[in-house]
Structure of Lipoprotein-releasing system ATP-binding protein:
Amino acid sequence: MNEVVMRLNGVEKFYNKGLANEVHVLRGVDLSLSKGEMVALVAPSGAGKSTLLHIAGLLDAPDAGEVAIGGDVLSGRSDRRRTNARRNDVGFVYQFHHLLPEFTALENIALPQMANGVGKAAAEARGLELLARVGVDHRADHRPAALSGGEQQRVAFCRALANAPRVMLADEPTGNLDPATSDQVFDALMELVRGTGLSALVATHNMELAARMDRVVRLEDGVLVQG
Ligand SMILES: Nc1ncnc2c1ncn2[C@@H]1O[C@H](COP(=O)(O)OP(=O)(O)OP(=O)(O)O)[C@@H](O)[C@H]1O
């Protein structure tokens, strides 16, 4: 049986609980991500996709249910424990790259590793290896502003993987790119995920990209349904 890397069990989330404007956005979300599995998350706007990704990535706590990464139930644990797990086990990618503008592409990938105690030479070596996998190692010494949108997003993928997380959580990772660039950048993302054995949950509105992943889950009325 495939190793389960991330498991969400009965996850519920309210906003403004008990108030007249209460929103019960997640109503019992169950999801298992196996090692190496790439799952597309599709949802109408406002359905709770970002809320779900934040809870899965331990940035927010569920009101009920559990989030487990690598078999450890982390929801309800101490802040320190969840922060550690978030830093080590989860890589985030957003629609916008959020790279640090004053640092080069390579530094943006090396810095999170150095913050985790990796030496500069080793961090840069890993950074270059990741950049080569997505075809932007020739831009290693450029700052983000000097890169194209597609290149910026490829660097952001590498940064998300810098500390070798177990899971990548991506929120519309190609949503800010034109269709042709989006396809190429998505190819790079797939290559990176496949090449590292990472598991990934990728929110997208693009049904063609969703269909290329191993499985599609749809967030509807606060629960996940297949396809
Ligand atoms: N802090 C908050 N307080 C109150 N309501 C919130 C809050 N954050 C989100 N919501 C509501 O919860 C619902 C889900 O929001 P969320 O941002 O998770 O949706 P989404 O599916 O990511 O949307 P989109 O695709 O448009 O970004 C929305 O109705 C939103 O208005």
The chain has a mean pLDDT of 93. The first strand starts at residue 4 and ends at 15. The two ends are 22 Å apart (CA to CA). The chain is about 35% helix and 25% strand.
